[in-house]
Amino acid sequence: MKKYELIYKIINYVYKKDQFTLQDLMREFDISKSTALRYIASLEDMGVPLYSEKGRYGGYKLLETYKIPPISFTPQETYAMFFAIKTIELLKSTPFKAEYSTIQEKFLGSVSSKVKATLEQLGSRISFGTVKIANECPMLEDLLYAIMKPSVLKILYQTPQKTTERRIQPIGIFADYGNWYCPAFDVDKNQYRIFRCDRIKKIEPLKEKPVENIVELDLNTRLDLVKKSPEAIDYKIEISKEGKEIYERCNFPTMCLQEAKKGFLISGWIEIGEMEFLINYLHQFGKYLVSIYPESIKQNYLESLEAIKNKIK
Prior knowledge:
4 domains; 313 residues; 11 helices; 37% helix; elongated; SH3 type barrels; Arc Repressor Mutant, subunit A; alpha+beta; 7-stranded mixed sheet
């Protein structure tokens, strides 16, 4: 067991006991007397209100003013708790709504300044969207650590067409259309890219120095990296008047909306590798979709509808 994990277990043990001795601590955690004394000193340095009593029934006690003991978390448990609090944002309406902001405020006030700074940084780098995530993403935690401590990763990325090795520097993670996505800087291509997290099958941290200007980016500023490549595809999507509300609920910085004869026209551009993302986006318009240009995007959309049709019995 790592030292920080043991000290958090000892803290919880101390708060549960009215009184304990060094021998109790030694037996409970299978440690020597000198190690137990060092941990007692560490607890006192951390501000745990202990005092000792000598004699036959002596030992260590917690000040009685601590009626409700604080709960102590390891750093990993703190990050997990932060994730749990953030998931409340998925709910449009919740009971005790006002209390959730208070809980988050108290939680952030209970952690160390270093951990708090990390959590506040993560606040602008994580978004859960509004759709429940259905796919398993075993590499999600590794991606999160690479975001907290900016790192260059070698990933094994699997799409329906092929499997490739990529070197990326993750910027953040967000959820949309029932999937986790990781916007990142592709080190080899020197371009901004978005990766589906469930398709990342393997991660290997590299010893390379992170790209400095990428470290400063988050989900709000990541599009500063977006540059239209020569291979990018311009598109025009016509929707009926009823489709405007859907567009206003969800659209992207490379899109714009203008009035057309039969309704509205969505125009923009995408990189070839983002075709699937755009096709999934178009599905939400359903019967409000009027026309799609160019033909390549239209064909991809029709093929996706055919695949759906073939799956339904």
